[in-house]
User: Which sequence fits this backbone?
């Protein structure tokens, strides 16, 4: 009798296990798809990437929350970990979820030094999407799904900088202008009928954009504003850009008639020095990367001196 009971219990246990497996396999699972990862913005301090994902909720009820946890590695070495709540996902729907990933150069530079000749480094995302199973499906003792996530994409080794070089400012002889004023002939000298025919403050300089890491890059367009001693000096969008490997050059020339120059600019010309602030936005691209005109925003301050 005991043998019969034991046999019955054993068979029941096997059937129960099979039933549990069937129930588990019949529970629909959420899905996550990484649609793409692309550079969205580059600044002087960090780089931003846009991670585009799609989450599918197969249930007839709303998922109130779900957690996406990712390890971010570069060339197999850990950079950081990310965790975020994706929020509510409506029943029987697919939700597109974009994320901005921001990485500072102070954290990236260790990888640039470790792989100094690699123009592109493999960025790897690996982790899980944890989704609670709605109560109506909780028949097999399983409370949540852990959906694996894995994605790899090469990103450029980027460490941008911008410099002002070969700055010159040529101004009229202010002593001679003072003498002409005393003689009463200043108006003719200055060209008061047409200031463009009078003396001018002539300025020329080069803007040099460079990548201090390994990737070759091209500057595709340029909009910038240059202030000297807090005064707006040049706002321009030059069309001629010389791209040469990891460096791009832009030559700037400008002139201001003396009658149009304010006292601040005249003092700068006399002192032959000024504090500068250069701001702007340019389009960056990398020859080996199929992404054009990545916004490069910059703001740099310093001191200029010329002879």
Assistant:
């Amino acid at each position: 009798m005991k043998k019969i009971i034991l046999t019955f219990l054993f068979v029941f246990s096997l059937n129960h296990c099979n039933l549990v497996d069937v129930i588990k396999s019949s529970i629909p699972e959420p899905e996550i798809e990484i649609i793409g990862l692309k550079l969205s913005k580059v600044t002087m301090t960090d780089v931003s990437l846009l991670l585009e994902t799609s989450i599918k909720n197969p249930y007839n009820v709303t998922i109130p929350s779900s957690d996406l946890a990712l390890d971010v590695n570069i060339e197999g070495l850990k950079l950081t970990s990310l965790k975020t709540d994706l929020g509510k996902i409506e029943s029987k729907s697919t939700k597109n979820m974009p994320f901005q990933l921001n990485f500072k150069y102070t954290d990236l530079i260790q990888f640039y030094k470790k792989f100094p000749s690699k123009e592109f480094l493999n960025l790897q995302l690996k982790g899980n999407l944890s989704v609670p199973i709605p109560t109506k499906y909780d028949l097999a003792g399983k409370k949540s799904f852990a959906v694996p996530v894995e994605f790899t994409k090469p990103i450029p080794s980027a460490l941008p900088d911008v410099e002002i070089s070969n700055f010159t400012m040529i101004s009229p002889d202010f002593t001679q202008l003072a003498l002409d004023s005393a003689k009463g002939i200043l108006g003719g000298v200055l060209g008061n009928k047409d200031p463009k025919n009078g003396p001018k403050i002539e300025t020329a300089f080069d803007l040099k954009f460079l990548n201090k890491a390994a990737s070759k890059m091209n500057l595709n367009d340029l909009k910038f504003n240059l202030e000297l001693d807090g005064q707006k000096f040049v706002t321009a969008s030059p069309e001629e850009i010389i791209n040469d490997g990891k460096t791009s050059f832009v030559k700037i020339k400008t002139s201001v008639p003396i009658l149009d120059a304010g006292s601040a600019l005249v003092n700068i010309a006399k002192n032959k020095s000024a504090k500068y602030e250069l701001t702007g936005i340019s389009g960056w691209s990398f020859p080996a990367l199929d992404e054009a005109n990545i916004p490069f925003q910059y703001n740099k301050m310093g001191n200029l001196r010329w002879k």
Notes: The longest strand covers residues 120-132. The chain is about 20% helix and 50% strand. Helices lie at 2-26, 105-114, 174-183, 186-190, 263-271.
